[in-house]
Amino acid sequence: MDRRAGRWTFGVCVWALSCCLALPAVSEPLPAQAASGRYQPPRTPDGRPDLQGVWSNGSLTTLTRPASVPNLTVTPEEAARLVRDNPWVQLAASEQGASDLSDGLLADGNSDRGYNTFWIDPGASLASVKGELRTSWIVEPATGAMPMSDEGRRLARQAVQRRTARLFAGPEALPIAERCLIGFTGAGGPVMLNTIYNNNYQIVQTPDAVMILVEMVHDARIIRMNSSHRPAAIQPWLGDSIGWWENDTLVVETINVHPGQGEAGPVYLSDKGKVIERFTRVSDDQIFYEFRVDDPIYYTQTWRGEMSLNARSEAVYEYACHEGNYAMAGILGGARLQEARGERPSLGPGIFPRSPPASGSARSGG
């Protein structure tokens, strides 16, 4: 990922974060045996439901939905329209065919354009959850929006202002994703959100722990079973997660998320925040994933969502995120160069052209 004078590819991550507040996806509906409650999951040697394997939440469905999409569920015809109008789908269509090196796409010197749709794999359809095509993961409130409080909005704005003011001051000031500390746009949880690529998870179980290997940035989330939370002073990335079984459902409670993660979103959490996640295997090919977010600082009410994790036959390979290790000198050197020119260091504009791409037209990809 090339960088010039401080204009770098994190712009795509910023756009992807905003996309998490937007659109929709299509998996196979639940089999009849799961819908009727007759499905019996495979068992581990200690008798628990076997959740092990590789699962994916890749989809064009996102955490929330805009006011222009009023309904949680849509018909196949409505889903097809939402997919057609999705900006990722449109951008991918615009890059089909041979590159036209005279189209002027790179005339602005935007090195972010090297991060084109060849590398992006958000999904190609809306998600099927409980056999319904869903336009958001959030099911409550019915608006499909996070119920942010006035205080929550103020804190989120303050955090952005602090980060913006110090953005290129040094290595520690760069965003979490750029430093490859945890997965982009909330992939590792809590809540485990889909992102622009690497939407796979590998689950490994023992009687004492459940490990979820997150493909994005290669996070390993450890859920300690039948345990108590650590002292509140311990605030790890991805939070402090403990788990227990309620019949055939794995229940996970997470508190004490690292403050740097909690204030960055997309799921904002304070030191008062708590997330409850539930994993229920409903067929050989699907886990029903539910989540409930409770934080009296950031939100006006408890809110919850539903998602399907779909089985994959492939293995998860290491995603060796390393930009912050190998490109740090270039990032900060570019910022110092901009300052020497009397310019304020700035992010690149992202991978999208300044004007909407024309669907079907060939564009140079970078």
Task: Write a brief caption for the model.
With 366 residues, the protein is α+β, with helices and mostly antiparallel strands. Helices cover 19% and strands 21% of the residues.
Mean pLDDT: 85
What structural class should be given to the helix and strand makeup?
alpha+beta
Number of domains: 1
How big a fraction of the residues is strand?
Answer: 15-25%
**What is the 3D shape?**
globular
Question: Whole-Å distance between the termini?
Answer: 10 Å
Give the C-alpha Rg.
21 Å
Question: How does this model look, in words?
Answer:
The N and C termini lie close together (10 Å). The longest helix has 17 residues, at 150-166. The protein has one domain (10-96, 111-340). With 366 residues, it is an alpha+beta fold. A hairpin with a 3-residue loop joins strand 6 (200-205) and strand 7. It has helices spanning 10-19, 32-35, 76-85, 87-94, 150-166, 259-262, 323-326, 328-340, and strands spanning 53-56, 73-74, 127-129, 132-134, 138-140, 200-205, 209-214, 219-225, 240-246, 249-255, 274-283, 286-294, 303-312. The chain has eight helices and 13 strands. The relative contact order is 0.22.
